[in-house]
Fold this protein.
Amino acid sequence: MIEKALKGNRNYWAWIASLLAVIAVGITAYNRQHWFGLTVTGMGRDVSWGFYIAQFTFLVGVAASAVMVVIPYYLHNRKEFSKTVIIGEFMAVAATLMCLLFILADMGRPDRVLNVLLYPSPHSMVFWDVMVLNGYFVINLVSGWTVLGAERRGVPPPSWVKPVIYLSIPWAVSIHTVTAFLYAGLPGRHLWLTAVLAPRFLASAFAAGTSLLILVTLVIKQCTGFDTGKEAREKLAVIVTYAGIVNFFMIGTEFFTAFYSHVPSHMHSLQYLFFGLEGHYTLVPFMWFSLLLGLGSLVVLLLPGRKSSPKWLAAACTGLVVSIWIDKGVGLILGGFVPSPLEEIVDYQPTLTEIGVTLGIWAIGLLVLTLLLKVAVSVKSQE
Amino acid sequence: MKKILIPLAMVAALALVAYVGVEYLKLQFIFGVVIPYAAAVLFVAGFLYRIADWLIRPVPFRIPTTAGQEKSLDWIRRNPVESPHRAWEAAARVLSEVLLFRSLFRNTRAELRKDASLAYASNKWLWLGGLAFHWSLLVIVLRHARFFFAMVPGFADFLDHADSFFDVTLPAFYISDAIALGAITFLVARRFFDAKVRMISLPTDYFPLFLIGGIVLIGVLMRYVVRLNVMPVKDLMLQLMNFGFDPPGEIGTLFYIHLFLISVLLAYFPLSKLMHMGGIFLSPTRNLCNNSREKRHVNPWNPDIKFRTYSEYEDDFREKMKKAGLPVEKQ
Amino acid sequence: MNKERREFIRKTGLGVLAGICASSAFMPAFSLEETVLPAWDEKPVPGKIRWGMLIDTRKCLNECSECVAKCHFVHNVPDFGNRKDEVKWIWKSSYEHVFPTSTQQFRTSDVLQRSFLALCNHCAEAPCTRACPTEATFRRWDGIVSMDYHRCIGCRFCMAACPYGSRSFNWRDPREGIKLASVDYPTREQGVVEKCNFCSDRLVRGLIPACAESCPQKALTFGDLNDPKSDIRVLLESNNTMQRKPELGTKPSVFYII
Amino acid sequence: MRINKTILTIGLPALLMFALLAFFRQSGNAVESPKAPPAPVTVDSTRCIAQTEYMRANHMKVLHEWRNSSVREGNRVYTSPNGSRFQKSLNTCLGCHSTNRLFCFNCHMYANVRPKCWNCHLSPMETP
Amino acid sequence: MAKYAPNLSELKKELDEKPSILKGNYSDKEWWDLPVEFRDGNWCFPAKPEVIEELGFPNPRKWAATDQDWKLPDGWQKTISEGLRSRLKKYRSLKLFLDTCVRCGACADKCHFFLGTGDPKNMPVLRAELLRSVYRNDFPLAEKILKGFSGSRKLTAEVIKEWHMYFNQCTECRRCSLFCPFGIDTAEITIVARELLNLIGVNNNWILAPVANCNRTGNHLGIEPHTFVQNIESMVDDIEELTGITVEPTFNRKGAEVLFITPSGDVFGDPGVYTMMGYLLLFHHIGLDYTISTYASEGGNFGFFTSNDMMKKLNAKMYHEARRLGVKWILGGECGHMWRVVHQYMDTMNGPADFLEVPVSPVTGTKFQNAAATKMVHIAEFTADLIHNGKLKLDPKRNDHLRTTFHDSCNIARGMGMFEEPRYILRNVCNTFHEMPENTIREQTFCCGSGSGLNAEEYMDIRMRGGFPRANAVRIVREKHKVDSLVTICAIDRASLTPLMRYWNPGVGVYGLHELVGNALVMDGEKKRTEDLRENPMAGFEDGEDDED
């Protein structure tokens, strides 16, 4: 079936070629990092995680959002999602792959990655995260591919697929919960040490991931003429709206807890992110931009009729994705490290190498997504 | 079952031969020097003979299997690899077969379903398994260069490095070992569990699989479990590369079994289906251009055939032709 | 034979050899230490001993950093001269940085001016060992939170988990940052996390940690917290001491007299 | 024409073969066929933890096991079958073997095996 | 049909219920232990003694495959083994294909006969093994030592029966070759096996009778020159009746620009004649200076299914006639194996055709460089070029009464590589065209089940089974898109798909591509067209009919 990804028009190949070029840049950058060590990144003793882990956190959310189409289609038999569901699943596959690659890129000794399996440590959340992410990757790839294969040859999918698909629903929740637990279980990091982190992750995932899904369907429609259906998109937009509202509500509660209790260590990270601390203001404009953009996008989605206009929908979804990418990716990770446990403030800035690797991984993810979706669209639009 | 057990027993017996020969009869010189030389000679000579034997046979006709649009009208997009028109396109086609197993990539599995209907499932497992098997074996062979050369060639060194990327065991774990063992298991299991392939399989199909499997397994044992001193092994290999005849040093018996099985494989190679390694380059349905209407292809033994000429035909039917108003040559 | 062999090596591997020699150029001339039998000759009983340290900050001289220098020399801790790539096992810092949650208003100026030693606390409930996905960092039988550099995958989860900033990562090849090397302890590889090991390498030879030994003021007391008669326990019971961030429940093994 | 082809088809590979042979012979002449390194004379093997033969094949296994048991379990003392006791440390080995600076490298270069030990641990090369 | 084929429900039941290794049921026997059973419907009648004699072939006699004794000539084993030995010397392909098979099984479920019969020996690899097992026993020395290990066996009369059975259940369609990682082409092996069988008088009347006819009268059907002309002239009358246009084909005319050769099935058989009418209309429409020969009146070549020599002998007439008539180039009609021969063999066997010119379309001026050596152009290339250059007046609405799909004939697909031209033409002459499922078209197309001289009435059982995969694909588009017309560019397809469709998919008609072209052509001076060439009413043109009445 993958041979369908090897047939395409000029634009398709130009897109693939440009992705490959970016991947080549990424590989070059990674090679540098592998050779000289992580010193070539902006990370350091105080901010020891950066861009990579931020992307990872964001993308787990994108992956998890596949349930927002799987639940209505398979659990509630809503036929309008019939064309969207495979796109959601394949997006989850690509996003999970990127997550794994970002973890790998962030590792000091990727050659020892198998140690995670050789010395399984159930007390470590990383171990569980590796388990659930790999599992989610396999579940979505296998179920999506099998259902598509059956559709290609015009037969009903094999009976074992249904349970696997049902399994993917709690599994999706688990990947983001476990990812939240990575952070929420650390004693010295006040921004992360909050029970609301996992639900907040889920809400932001269903807002940003589903927005991205809407955007992908719009791009597919634009590029291939394959339309997953306006109705499905509008339903998804409703999910985005409510998830977005819940997300911002939970951010608000974080503010309340920190500032009403007025415990200094609880306030510091939020102060650093939103107001600047001791002369450090690097992230302040980004965080406000994120907040306003997110709220603005929600307003657009809430205004009557805007959802049904593809342009407004695309704009609002893009706004939410960017907003949550800043808030949950960059802000959340860096905010956890600043100030440091010794109450020191060290600013972080990604280096070119780091950005190169990041772009490379995104390009790999997009390449995989493109290939998978090419197959899916070819099958779905066959005579 | 018998056709699986016999080759398995044969491989076991071969291993036993080497074991007894080295462990009890102390034939280190025979197994370490004489047999490897003999096997190498048989392999090289046999391989060349088989290739030459194919090459001297003519290719009377241009019979490529065309799997894509031929070159015809200018505005029709042709498929240069699947229906090659120039020599380099045909070369690309052959290379795509050799390196990527292009034809197997197309593989499907026919399903006869209820109510007499057929469906064709995409089925790339054989392609993937075959690719994994062949490529991992190639990598394994190439990185053995460290035993054969005093100065290890750069690419072999690089392969060795890349292959042992994962920091898992001491001595370093080779990815290709795991892939090769997995692929061999898959290929054997497939022959056993797929009803169709089980029927077509012969002992000659299982034998090389078991033989190669045995070689890899013993190699893995030597590296990770039993652990041999590799110094005398390298001595021996360098000596073999230099056509020396000194007796080998102290090496564990396992190594002699490994070497003997490889010798058997080398000697068996030219006599068997393993020659597909050479044959794939020569396949006339893949390595010929599809341009037989544009360029004349010569058959060296083109027979002279007497056909029924027009005049013979007219002689037979002249009256009828005239009646029908057809022009005739002779009245 | 041997000569032949060397000849061969010279011909074939000169480049590789040259590389190895170059990397060893920073190594001073010395002879390897004699093999010494360890201070204990049986497999230790887990939980019997819990090593701890008491730092009498009153004795600590502001201008002195003997302990830091000694520790970092003995353990080949690199120094790259920048904060980003910094690796440190023990260091001196101000009160509000070492005890950020214990800063109280109107501290004596003496305390505010004093510098405080910080090092790995070898917590009894260490968050770092909980976070490690490969058990590359683990709590030993004697209470030392140890690093297995051979197993560390460099995920830096322990660094995020440590509330004391005691862990350092080898952002680059540490050998480049070692000016004077010690033979008592190996260097590390790029890409792994390291930290104070309570001189487990010295303990095995019956020596006390390098920092404690090197302190001219004898401000550092090292001993078994499980032994009620040990010096450290006697001091702990006769002095008012504190631990860093006790509210986190990590139960540090390093105590301070303020 | 056909004969030519036949000659070509057999002759070319044969020529290639000959060239290959010649090449290997030549490269063989350039370097004398090296032998496995002899046991370093300076080592008193009776004091070593095991027989030379065993150590040649299994030193990595021994070191690996020593490392694990000493670092992780605190089991620091190795008692050899003849009752001698050693500290489980690379230094124990190097205490004797550092007299030959090429002790590790002789074989490791010969077999083209490059473990990562020396990235951190001292090698005999790094002794005076 | 009833006598030689099971009825459909029985066959369907058998496919559904009978265990077969195709469905994953393991066989408890090795393939060489499976018996060969001849019964009604699975064997072709052997050639009549007089046909054999006329051709000068060995061992003329009366016999049947169901006989116990096949009356093989004395020393037949030697004939076979020497025949094989000499062919191994002549064909690298044969030697290589016998040597390199690794029995990977990629080809196993690609053969239409295997899919239709479930008979393990119809897996291409086993079909080749039938010969290979004997080859291994007789030839390479080492394998002889390892006998029993390599699946070798003796050449016995049972083996000959097996060969006859299974090399006549191969239509040389090359679908297996497409999937083979070494490009092993079972067709090459079948060709040689059939040659060998012919050497000892084991043969097929449906192949040899046309061969004899073709040699004598110039065409397979044995139509003598005057009848040939009469047939075409009756088509000319039909065309005049339908369209009001008088087309004027010429015969054996010297000095014409183009010699047109098409399979004789187009002149004689239904529905081929409608395709012929299409050609005639087309040539008239563009005013082509062409002639038809009664001597080279056959495009097809059943010699291809007999022996290499016979193929050359029958094919030689084309160039011979072209030279005699002094034409500039040859135009070939729609046919499958004819084009395999013309494309891959003709120039090698009977070339070089120096006396002809590189074909140039007199209408568009397009030079057919791809036929620069053979000087023979495929009608689909020719017509596609005309349409592309806007030289035809077409009204695709005239084919609105047909919902079409296209069947790639195996020889055109895998032995020539022509996929786009016929589709281009089809899209221009009709409005509804739906492709069959992807693994059944283009290079992966399925044979009609009756190619390579197996179109015999008495072979109906095997033909209907062999055609099952093709019919199944048609059924899918029929159910999905209400397709009712199967368009093809092969004369054997037109003859064989018709009963196949009647059997599996009643209501689906079989059409030649140029029949649809003929329907769609808007001719100068034509009368109002209300019926297609088959005199079936066109959809949407009924009103006009009323007006006229």
Q: What stands out?
A: Chain E is about 45% helix and 5% strand. Residues 47 and 205 of chain E are 4 Å apart (CA to CA). The longest strand of chain E covers residues 258-261. Chain E touches chain B through 126 residues (CB under 8 Å).
